[in-house]
């Protein structure tokens, strides 16, 4: 049985069009969800909105949305006013451009959907658009109104259909410099880099999602079953703090190789240095900071 479509409409390229449907590519249907309950009675709790100043409950028909324009000053909007601001839905994904896949910023890529034709009559037009994208090595950029919002989509050929990713607008994306600008510019060379490459070579393989289990969900379900059986749950022991080790030694151990003859690890060198007379301090290493682009 085909899954339930999240959205149905038309895919349009110029004068070429066909009926299509969007199906979610990821879902959280199997995730464990909790309800808030009263510890004493076991009864489920319900949410109650109260006035921040008076502390009194506010009935549902008196609850409206407000946008804060200043401290404790709000512009109030009714549901009818918000509905009027939503763009008119034409139920059409109109492809506006074709671009190389690598030109789409990875930060812009949001939730994925599958796009497929909904009838045999439109399947041929759909196949023409998909084949043209695949042959040219490009993705289609389209826009439509989805879930009451104006959306931009990236259509990438996937099997006999398209993988349709929602794209973030530019104002939603943050500059990488906000996170990376304070990272020191450290040059890694020599044996340290060789060892790191060796470790990567040992772990090379194919991405197989089935190998990765959601350990949190599994542990939660085990906990729930244990509580149902009336078992006493003991908190896990606190993890031991890892000791500081020499980076080069850690790389060698991870790579499964021993130190090269004639070379001492940094840890051993430090120990030897302490037992000897004072030496002249080595000049401090300089680090440079990358300027924000």
How many whole angstroms does the radius of gyration measure?
29 Å
Strand content: 25-35%
The succession of helices and strands, N to C, reads EEEEHEEHEEEHEHHHHE
Number of helices: 7
**Total number of β-strand segments?**
11
Please report the distance between the alpha carbons of the first and last residues.
51 Å
- Quick one: overall form? extended
Low-confidence stretches: 264-293
The largest sheet, given as strand count, sense and whether it forms a barrel, is:
7 strands, mixed, barrel
Lateral strand order in the biggest sheet: 1-2-6-9-8-7-5
Instruction: Indicate the percent of residues in helices.
Output: 25-40%
Structural class label: alpha+beta
Would you give an account of this structure?
- With 293 residues, the protein is α+β, with helices and mostly antiparallel strands.
- 25% of the residues lie in helices and 26% in strands.
- It is built from seven helices and eleven strands.
- The strands form three sheets. It has a seven-stranded mixed β-barrel with strand order 1-2-6-9-8-7-5.
- The longest helix is centred in the middle third of the chain and has 17 residues, at 120-136.
- It is extended, with a radius of gyration of 29 Å.
Explain the layout of strands and helices:
Elements: E1 7-13, E2 16-24, E3 65-70, E4 73-77, H1 79-85, E5 92-100, E6 109-117, H2 120-136, E7 138-146, E8 149-158, E9 161-167, H3 177-180, E10 184-185, H4 190-202, H5 215-228, H6 247-255, H7 266-275, E11 288-289
Parallel strand pairs: 1-5
Antiparallel strand pairs: 1-2, 2-6, 3-4, 5-7, 6-9, 7-8, 8-9, 10-11
Helix pairs in contact: 4-6
